[in-house]
Specification:
The structure holds two protein chains of two kinds. The longest helix of chain A has 40 residues. By secondary structure, chain A is mainly alpha-helical. In chain A, helix 2 packs across helix 11, helix 9 runs antiparallel to helix 11 and helix 10 runs antiparallel to helix 11. The radius of gyration of chain A is 25 Å and the shape is globular. Chain A has one domain: MetI-like (MetI-like fold, Orthogonal Bundle). Chain A has eleven helices and two strands. In chain B, strand 1, helix 3 and strand 2 form a beta-alpha-beta unit. Chain B is 41% helix and 16% strand. Chain B is α/β, with parallel strands linked by helices. Chain B contains 15 helices and ten strands. Classes of the chains: A mainly alpha, B alpha/beta. At the A-B interface, helix 2, strand 2, helix 3, helix 5 and helix 10 of A face helix 2, helix 4, helix 5, strand 6 and helix 8 of B.
């Protein structure tokens, strides 16, 4: 380590003092792409979110304005949905972490001596990606419908009330989110655990650490980059997901998430400013949450 | 070098046309593409503004014998190989090649896709579209539809008299019905042998959590209002609508209504998540054929709703005369009967029933495909809403759907 620090101190390449023209030339396509396909829509979204209804216009007609009121309106009307989205995403992320960590540990650490099994298990984790996640979610809806084998069995065993059902409930939506994001959680954790030096674990045991202590003090901190990456990859899309909570899939009328509200406002109500304001709020809240989380959890070692 | 077919996307077609027309260097073509993309971005920004109505594109039907037809799934006759016999016969007879596309999945999402181009008077990639009454009303109001030349559609005289004058299109100047249907109630005959008679029966405590209603506001609210004794085609207002909204809110909050869905309600009926539902007539015929004769459909005692999907020529289409020839063809009774026998919806063509009797007498007796006067008198058309009403009522209805 010390040697490396010494070496780099000697050999830091001098950054060119003058911005070279070639550099800008090479960057130009990328910058143009970002400006055109990221910045322009974002500005358009921001402008739309501030529009006011055209008093003499037809349904869906809006004019450019500086109507901050849109933000106040959507928060007061859909505050519950915003909270619900982040609540569902949080629960689904925690559930996915609890399920994925042992899987990743088993594949990445325990199966090291059996590379074939390791490869097979990894393929199994990735296998669901070979089928569209819309189809998989619809399949779950069928498997868990009222007259399905699973639900009728649960009812016969008195594990479910006779008039209870699964599809269209909050539980179903969180189940769907968890299921769909498990591979996104498992893979990053696996990549960090795969590189875990087991001699540290032996050292921990030699120092009279119980398995639980060794896990808490050694394994978990060393796998944090994977956990951080996995939770981000799960939480961010889960908060904005609108498929699982959609009434056409696992959701019902009281499980709508922010994505469903945006869809309804955009397509059915033609209330584009409200849809745009909600999108901006979703983006801002996710940015804030992720910012705080990354700052606290640290990303210096992130992959 | 063989000439490749033009891409589907009208915006890209426009760019290619621009590039071909100017025959300039590669560099300026790229600049053109850049300018096009900027225009696209600006168009997306400007879409919401209120502007003058767009003007119709010039008709090139005489030189270009083709047309694109955007329609809903399972809405035209199809043989085992996937071809459409009536369309093939049309092409053989007129020389007009038809590109039939199942592009409409939902009135709202289709409108969301094409509205910015319509507002600018551009080609949306379809020369004929079939959309539901209320959406047609919006297109006509906004000037997004081309006026049809009835001289080119002599068979329009076969249009059912009750559909010749509708409140959104007096004299059918812009739109012509394609197929129609009823919204009523259906139930699972195995689980509910006693059956249902009215919307009120859906609120039976035994059915708690097993009832589905449609996310199409006019059908669900229409049936509830009819049950309350409101003439939905007539002069009703906020009070009548609010009363029905309160009833639906209560049933949803009490858990009586399991879910509110569009086309996917059929999945719930099949999986038996719902045992009874508000639904569309033609669908029940189809799932009975697919999944065993398990469901029965009726128009409730208090009446059902009647809707139509209508042909329309979008403002940016340059093939209006071709579309008029297509409409004229489908208004031949024997052609209409062939389609009706396959899609199971109501045909608006007089004489189709007699033609159908020649193919299959039982079909001609089916009240859901060839309703008689008595059946038709129990079905009502939801009156047209003003833009302000539409906004208000949809907002109330969506509140229930979103649980707000």
């Amino acid at each position: 380590m010390a040697f490396a620090a010494f070496a780099t101190a000697e050999a830091v390449p001098q950054a060119p003092k003058r911005a070279s023209r070639i550099g800008w030339f090479l960057l130009a396509p990328g910058l143009a792409y970002l400006a055109l396909f990221f910045l322009t829509p974002l500005i358009s979204l921001l402008l739309t979110s501030l529009q006011a209804p055209d008093l003499y216009g037809d349904i869906g007609a809006y004019v450019y304005a500086f109507n901050w009121q849109n933000y106040v309106d959507v928060v007061s009307e859909y505050g519950e949905h915003i909270l619900r989205s982040f609540g569902y995403a949080l629960v689904a992320t925690a559930a996915a972490l609890l399920i994925s960590y042992p899987i990743a540990y088993y594949i990445g650490v325990r199966c090291r001596s059996r590379p074939l099994l390791q490869s097979i298990l990894l393929v199994l984790v990735i296998a669901p990606f070979f089928i569209s996640f819309l189809l998989r979610t619809l399949a779950w809806k069928q498997l868990l419908s009222d007259e399905s084998f699973i639900i009728t069995s649960l009812k016969a065993l008195s594990l479910m009330a006779p008039d209870a059902h699964f599809t269209g409930t909050a539980f179903a939506v969180i189940f769907g989110l968890t299921y769909n994001f498990i591979p996104f959680m498992t893979l990053p954790i696996y990549t960090t655990l795969e590189r875990l030096d087991t001699r540290y674990l032996e050292a921990g045991a030699d120092l009279y650490g119980s398995p639980a202590t060794v896990f808490r003090k050694v394994t978990l901190p060393l796998s944090m980059p994977g956990v951080v990456a996995g939770t981000l990859l799960t939480f961010i899309p889960a908060a904005g997901d609108y498929v699982n909570a959609s009434r056409d899939f696992l959701g019902g009328t009281d499980t709508a998430m922010i994505g469903n509200v945006i869809e309804a406002n955009f397509l059915v109500l033609l209330n584009y400013p409200a849809a745009a304001a909600l999108s901006i709020i979703l983006m801002a809240v996710i940015l804030a949450i992720v910012g705080v989380y990354v700052k606290r959890a640290g990303t210096e070692d992130l992959l | 070098m063989s000439r490749r077919p033009m891409p589907e996307d009208p915006m890209i077609r426009r760019l290619i046309a621009q590039a071909r027309a100017s025959q300039l260097t590669r560099r300026s073509v790229l600049a053109g593409a850049g300018a096009g993309a900027v225009t696209l971005a600006l168009a997306a920004c400007a879409g919401g503004g209120a502007g003058a109505k767009p003007t119709a594109a010039a008709d090139t039907s005489a030189s270009d014998k083709s047309l694109n037809w955007a329609n809903w799934a399972a809405y035209i006759d199809e043989d085992d190989s996937g071809a459409n016999p009536t369309l093939d016969a049309f092409t053989a007879a007129t020389g007009i090649a038809v590109n039939y596309e199942v592009a409409v999945d939902d009135n709202n999402s289709y409108y969301g896709k094409v509205k910015d181009q319509l507002a600018l008077g551009q080609d949306i990639g379809a020369d004929a579209v079939c959309l539901t009454d209320w959406m047609i009303a919006r297109w006509i109001r906004l000037g997004y539809a081309q006026e049809l030349d009835h001289a080119n559609i002599p068979n329009l005289s076969n249009l059912t008299p009750s559909l010749q004058n509708v409140d959104f299109d007096e004299g059918r100047a812009y739109s012509v019905p394609w197929q129609g249907g009823f919204a009523g109630i259906a139930w699972n005959k195995e689980k509910l042998p006693q059956g249902l008679k009215s919307v009120e029966d859906l609120w039976n405590p035994e059915l708690k959590g097993r009832v589905g209603v449609l996310s199409e506001m006019r059908d669900t609210m229409g049936l509830l209002m009819l049950q309350n004794g409101v003439d939905i085609a007539g002069d009703w207002g906020d009070d009548e609508f609010a009363a029905a909204i309160d009833q639906l809110t209560k049933q949803v909050e009490d858990g009586q209504v399991r879910n509110i869905k569009g086309n996917s309600y059929l999945e719930d009926l099949k999986s038996e998540d719902t045992l009874a539902a508000i639904c569309w007539s033609g669908d029940i015929t189809v799932i009975n054929a697919e999944a065993g004769d398990k469901w029965e459909f009726i128009i409730p005692e208090a009446g059902g709703t009647l809707w139509n999907d209508n042909f329309l020529v979008p403002i940016g289409s340059s093939k209006k005369a071709n579309v008029e020839a297509l409409i004229d063809y489908y208004y031949r009774p024997e052609v209409a009967a062939e389609v009706a026998a396959w899609v199971n919806y109501i045909t608006p063509v007089v004489g189709a029933q007699e033609a159908a009797a020649a193919i299959d007498p039982e079909l001609a007796e089916n009240q859901l495909i060839f309703p008689n006067e008595e059946t038709l008198s129990t079905a009502h058309v939801f009156r047209s809403l003003s833009a302000a009403e539409e906004q208000r009522y949809q907002a109330d209805f969506q509140k229930i759907l979103l649980g707000a």
